[in-house]
Amino acid sequence: MTPRFRRFLIYPLAAAIPVIAMTIGLGTAAGASTASAAPSASVSRAAQASAAAQAAIKQFMAGHHTDQHVGSTKKIDGLTQVQSTNWSGYADTGSGFSKVSSSWTEPTPSCSGTSGDLLAAFWVGIDGYSSNSVEQDGTMIECYYGTAYQYSWWEMYPLNAVQIVGETVASGDHIAASVVRSGSSYTLKVTDSTHTANSFTVTENGSGDANSSAEWIAEAPSGSSGVYPLAHFSVWTAGSDSVTAGSTTGTISSFPDDEITMVDGSGNVEAQPGPLNSSGNSFSVTWKRST
């Protein structure tokens, strides 16, 4: 499937930075005038939802933000704060990144009473913040007509779309995720120690990857009509965050780091990252609104 390149406004309270974004080829995104069709009464809602979710997620492609917006710079203790329409979390910048890792307890979504598709992805990765390549893996929540479906997945762009591995991720699962580079080879690993069938390790060769950033992100995936409503995940806490660039291994705060707040097109906060802990290796993202 040909990638759809989306333009997402990233408003640095510094100069804006290109961001790779997951995109979906199916369904209706936030702001679209027509909602997704309700499940047919003649088909099991659970079966239809699961099939629709998997079909949509398997068509995720990477989209590249190319607009540059220059705003005022806001720094707190050397930290640059920026805004994005699809990411919330932290990104380290520099060169020669070769490892990024994190662990978390899978959040508990609040899907009751929702209609259509609402999505939230949690991941670690190398690249994507200031480059056209991305190597990433993690978990994902989909709220489909009031029911939650959760997955483990990985992606390397431009080589492939998102690959679903596990379909039985559940709230409260203990997750560890990492991306490790050796030369031009990347090992992507997610371990679900609660439901081990969702765990995987894959090794893929890159293609001209920049290795210029490392990320710990809660994302609102995107479709052909724009960014999907953000599934209500309450709080996602990324802990034991580690990163290696060149010969230096440290935490998020060991390298130049950007704190990224997710906002909608009107500037309303959708997902707010909290400050790094004193060790610089943990933070939380709090859901604020769907769209």
Characterization of this structure:
The chain has 291 residues and is mainly beta. The protein has one domain (10-287): Sandwich (Jelly Rolls). Helix content is 4%, strand content 47%. The chain contains one helix and 22 strands. It has one helix at 45-57; strands at residues 10-12, 20-24, 61-64, 75-76, 79-84, 87-93, 97-105, 117-127, 134-144, 147-157, 163-166, 174-182, 185-192, 200-205, 213-219, 222-223, 226-227, 235-245, 248-250, 257-263, 269-273, 283-287. It has an 18-stranded mixed β-sheet that branches. Strand 20 (257-263) and strand 21 (269-273) form a beta hairpin. The longest helix is centred in the N-terminal third of the chain and has 13 residues, at 45-57. It is globular, with a radius of gyration of 18 Å. Residues 1-18, 24-36 and 60-73 have low confidence and may be disordered.
Features:
291 residues, 22 strands, disordered N terminus, single chain, four-stranded mixed β-sheet, 4% helix, mainly beta, 18-stranded mixed β-sheet, globular, Jelly Rolls, 1 helix
